[in-house]
Write a structure and sequence with these properties.
Helices cover 84% and strands 0% of the residues. It is mostly helical.
Length: 229
């Protein structure tokens, strides 16, 4: 009866050695943080997609670029993603175009540099905490395995003082140790899945941002060749 009682999940965690408990606690904390970042990143990437869709519809609706820039710079709503890239590029374009003697080549180079710098900042924001998910996904199984090995060592060390070892005496100690591996996998698997999914989504967003930069550069280059009225 004692063996059955010891083999409940709660009992195995409570009866584990101090080292195994520390390992389980670290893995549970890592899992909690990774799930927090998963939900935060899920909302952030979803919001970035919706904002990109909305801004592209407005941009290609035939609206005046100057008016669009004034609305974006005027703080009508919080600029993000594609809109922020447009704002940075168009601002630099207007600033350089207003300088006397500015040629088209230097004008477009400065505009592209401003957009690329903003693009990198936007991608850095989207990619924040992804390294943590990657670390949890790659390291957690090994941390859990360490707890399992330590627990099994303790189980066999305890059997050295027993005259005759039976399965009933070995099973509880080994089962307690294996819980650490289970918790490690529970922490690692969602983190790996989320990391791969978010990396794919961010790569697709980056491709959309870069395509928009090229299209905006072509539009601004045509405007740069037009004489001022």
């Amino acid at each position: 009866m004692a063996v059955t009682q010891d083999l409940t999940i709660v009992a195995m965690i409570v009866n584990a050695s101090i080292v195994v408990k520390v390992v389980m606690g670290l893995l549970a904390l890592a899992s909690l943080y990774s799930w927090t970042y998963i939900f935060l990143k899920l909302f952030a990437i979803g919001r970035a997609k919706r904002q990109a869709d909305a801004f592209e519809r407005e941009f290609w609706s035939g609206t005046d670029l100057v008016g669009l820039y004034q609305r974006a710079a005027g703080g009508r709503y919080v600029a993000a993603g594609m809109e922020r890239i447009f704002e940075a590029g168009f601002k630099e374009f207007l600033k350089l175009k207003g300088r006397a003697g500015a040629d088209v080549s230097s004008l477009m180079d400065g505009t592209r540099r401003a957009m690329k710098a903003t693009l990198q900042r936007e991608l850095d924001t989207l990619e924040s905490h992804l390294s943590f998910l990657a670390t949890v996904g790659s390291v957690s199984p090994y941390i859990g395995l360490f707890g399992t090995v330590w627990g099994i060592m303790n189980a066999f060390r305890g059997l050295s003082n027993v005259a005759q070892a039976t399965l009933a005496q070995v099973a509880p100690g080994i089962a307690e140790a294996l819980v650490a591996t289970a918790i490690g996998l529970f922490a690692a698997i969602p983190a790996v899945i989320a990391y791969n999914r978010f990396t794919h989504d961010i790569d697709r967003l980056a491709g959309r941002y870069e395509s928009f930069m090229e299209e905006l550069s072509n539009i601004l280059q045509r405007q740069a060749h037009q004489p001022e009225r």
